[in-house]
């Protein structure tokens, strides 16, 4: 007993003497959960509720960031423009972009092929078209530098932009049935990069639910396809991030951030007021800020919206054969999309 008392005194003395050398260092602020625990099934139901959205339309402020045309660690950020976006299931998309009422670009897709008309600046007028399904044939910055085609170099990240990148961001695809996918979740603490302030000595650390969506291919092999992040430190535990992966090898394809959620009148849906689509491997980032009173869900007749012929005879660029040395063509594209095409 005496030996135990002596040991305790020795330990206390060591602690007291050693405390003079202790210093306090900054650590991340741990933000507490705003709500009670949310079951995984409820989070899955939130994702699947977006399958009820048949049509969507809104006006938005748009910033485009081109990673490929920048220099080293600097990217080219274009001035803010205004845009008109339209979606209709299954995969119809349209986005018109203006700058001070001047038409800059127009893009449409039917889920199989897309058309992108660039009207301004005058020296970059193009009519770019190709297959939506050729994501695996993206061109990286090294490939663009090796090309003799100045058209591709000037377009930069635009050569990899596909309408479904935007559609899948807003019309979130439901999580498949249990026999085609499995879902599991983990609780993650992480510093939100958007909370970082230059010069700040401390940062906040948020608590997230992360849903992993693992789908199985025809051979039964599990492939990570999507991750959904829900912020527990905000009231309502909102969806704040969606990541998509490709090739079945976990390669990040898109990193989408959602914020400023609001309730859309006349519907059962909450909607993000600010959306950032970051596709670094594709060479671009889109930042969209929705004009709330222009958001309409399942209320618009969008018939005829998704047609875009090359009526102005813009120089054409076919991305299905980007390495072709053919000169720019002047022949207008007349293909139009049938909005009544059968669903997949």
List keywords for this structure.
344 residues; mainly beta; outer membrane lipoprotein receptor (LolB), chain A; 17-stranded mixed beta sheet; 5 helices; disordered C terminus
Class from secondary-structure proportions? mainly beta
Query: CATH homologous superfamily of one domain?
Result: Lipoprotein localisation LolA/LolB/LppX
Number of strands: 17
Main sheet summary: 17 strands, mixed
Q: What share of the residues does DSSP label as strand, in percent?
A: 35-45%
CATH topology of one domain: outer membrane lipoprotein receptor (LolB), chain A
- Oligomer status: single chain
Q: Give the termini separation.
A: 79 Å
CATH architecture of one domain: Clam
Low-pLDDT runs of 5+ residues are 324-328, 331-344
What is the level 1 CATH name of one domain?
Mainly Beta
Number of helices in the DSSP assignment: 5
